[in-house]
Amino acid sequence: MPISVIDAYTVVLFVHIVAVVVGLGVVFTYPLLDAFARRGRGTDLVALHRFQSFLTQRLIQPALLVILLAGIYLATDRWSLGDGWISATFAIVIVLGGLAGAVFGPTEKKLAALAERDLASGKRSDEYEREAIKLARFGALGSLLVLVALFLMVTKPGA
Predict the structure, then answer these.
(1) pLDDT for 90-105, tens place per residue?
(2) Euclidean distance between the first and the last CA atom of the chain, given in angstroms as a whole number
(3) Alpha carbon distance 92, 145 (integer Å)
(4) From CA 92, how far away is CA 49, in angstroms rounded?
(5) DSSP readout, 102-154?
(6) In this structure, which long-range contacts are made by residues 139-145, counting pairs with CB atoms below 8 Å and at least 24 apart in sequence?
(7) 96 contacts 145 by C-beta, under 8 angstroms
(8) At a CB cut-off of 8 Å and minimum separation 6, what does 127 contact?
(9) Domain spans of the chain?
């Protein structure tokens, strides 16, 4: 593509896609990281949950904001906010942001504290396991929502 053809829409589309890949791609590794940490020492679980919390605050939530803002620009430049695939995708981004703030972040912090407490006692507690299951279930939901949004963005049903 000649440089003269690269317009603002293309640049914003690039930023939008980079935010999705960098900000949300990491969450697909969480089940593997959890399985790895569970086989290791208890300190691995503490580090995992601290790192998840850090990523949620410093990477995932800012990426969701970039995704949303770039998406608004893209939708209003060449599409319509009333298109079903766009409305559904915006709803997914908003739900993911809500989950990040209300479930993922707080649960990751709680899991880090519980893992640290359990490390001192030498045994993983039922409370830790309940919170880990909650995070895994909401994580699976979040991953599914990301995949649905990607499907909608790629296929643009009804467009």
Answers:
(1) 999 999 999 999 999 9
(2) 25
(3) 6
(4) 24
(5) IIIHHHHHHHHHHHHHHHHHTS--HHHHHHHHHHHHHHHHHHHHHHHHHHHHH
(6) 139/27, 139/30, 139/31, 139/104, 141/99, 142/27, 142/96, 142/99, 142/104, 143/27, 143/28, 145/92, 145/95, 145/96
(7) yes
(8) 114
(9) 18-153
Higher pLDDT, 40 or 30: 30
Amino acid, single-letter form, for residue 122: G
Quick one: tokens of 30? 């969480």
CB burial of residue 79 (10 Å; 0-12, 13-18, 19+): middle
Tell me the residue length of the chain: 159
pTM for this predicted structure: 0.92
CB of 15 within 8 A of CB of 73?
Answer: no
Tokens of 130: 């309940």
Q: Is 158 helix (H, G, I), strand (E, B) or coil?
A: coil
Q: Which helix (H) or strand (E) holds 5?
A: none
Which residue carries 């912090």 as its tokens? 109
